């Protein structure tokens, strides 16, 4: 998007950086809240409506860009708010669906989708931008995401007990492995916050996750600009190499 906008909008590196980073102000604000909401209302709804709202805002981005750059920044912050509940929602889904012995493997498989999406998304968006113009890189993924949300909210249930297509053997296996749960008794105040915040393993994981995300999202947001501004690659080649 922002590589092609240099000629249409004349946005400098600082402004492009502000637009790209604005998403994460909203994203970080709903990480903890997303986990609590996932426990209360269920991860399926949280993921479905979070992605749906993000998709709608994505489709509105080209119109917002032509109206005001500051509107784009606001839109990106709101996108981050809705997108921030998705990862916690995934954990909430697996807490009700994945037996403890399989939870790590299933969780890793689910989270790997974000990397697979990056590998395929970059070249696809580069091709769309070259062939149909930069707005198509917002319209196509946005409408695909809306279709996905409809399928997700229609076909996926919060609990295996509510799934009409699961076999009795699989249901019994999951229920027996996880055991009974009562999410209505869980509240924000009941969490052992002192033990969590003073746990060295928690801080070790937090630091490792911070470092990994720093590198990953820096490359994700800045590498396309580097390919274009420094190496002078066109959008198609730059997107393919960025992937």
TrEMBL record:
Organism superkingdom: Eukaryota
**Biological process annotations from GO:** monoatomic anion transport
User: Principal place where this protein is found?
Assistant: membrane
InterPro entries (UniProt xref):
MFS, MFS_dom, MFS_Na/Anion_cotransporter, MFS_trans_sf
Any one cellular-component term (Gene Ontology):
membrane
Membrane topology, as annotated: Multi-pass membrane protein
> Which ranges does the record mark as transmembrane?
20-39, 46-64, 70-94, 106-124, 136-156
Q: Which UniProt keywords apply?
A: Membrane, Transmembrane, Transmembrane helix
UniProt-listed Pfam families: MFS_1 (PF07690)
Annotated localization: Membrane
GO MF terms held by the record: transmembrane transporter activity
The residue ranges of the Major facilitator superfamily (MFS) profile domain are 1-243
Q: What is this protein called?
A: Vesicular glutamate transporter 1
């Amino acid at each position: 998007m922002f590589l092609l906008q240099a000629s249409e909008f004349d946005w400098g590196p600082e402004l492009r950086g502000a637009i790209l980073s604005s998403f994460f102000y909203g994203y970080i604000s709903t990480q903890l809240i997303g986990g609590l909401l996932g426990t209360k209302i269920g991860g399926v709804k949280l993921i479905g409506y979070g992605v749906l709202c993000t998709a709608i805002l994505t489709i509105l981005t080209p119109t917002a860009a032509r109206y005001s750059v500051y509107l784009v920044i606001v839109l990106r912050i709101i996108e981050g708010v809705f997108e921030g509940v998705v990862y916690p929602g995934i954990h909430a889904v697996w807490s009700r669906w994945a037996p403890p012995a399989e939870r790590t493997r299933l969780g890793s498989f689910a989270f790997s989708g974000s990397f697979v999406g990056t590998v395929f998304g970059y070249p696809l968006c580069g091709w769309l931008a070259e062939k149909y113009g930069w707005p198509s890189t917002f319209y196509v993924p946005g409408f695909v995401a809306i279709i996905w949300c409809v399928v997700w909210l229609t076909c996926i249930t919060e609990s295996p007990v509510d799934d009409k297509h699961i076999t009795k053997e699989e249901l019994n296996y999951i229920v027996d492995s996880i055991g009974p749960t009562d999410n209505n008794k869980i509240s924000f105040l009941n969490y052992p916050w002192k033990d969590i915040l003073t746990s060295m393993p928690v801080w070790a994981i937090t630091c490792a996750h911070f470092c990994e995300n720093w590198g990953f999202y820096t490359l994700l947001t800045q590498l396309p600009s580097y390919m274009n501004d420094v190496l002078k690659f066109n959008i198609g080649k730059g997107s393919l190499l960025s992937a």
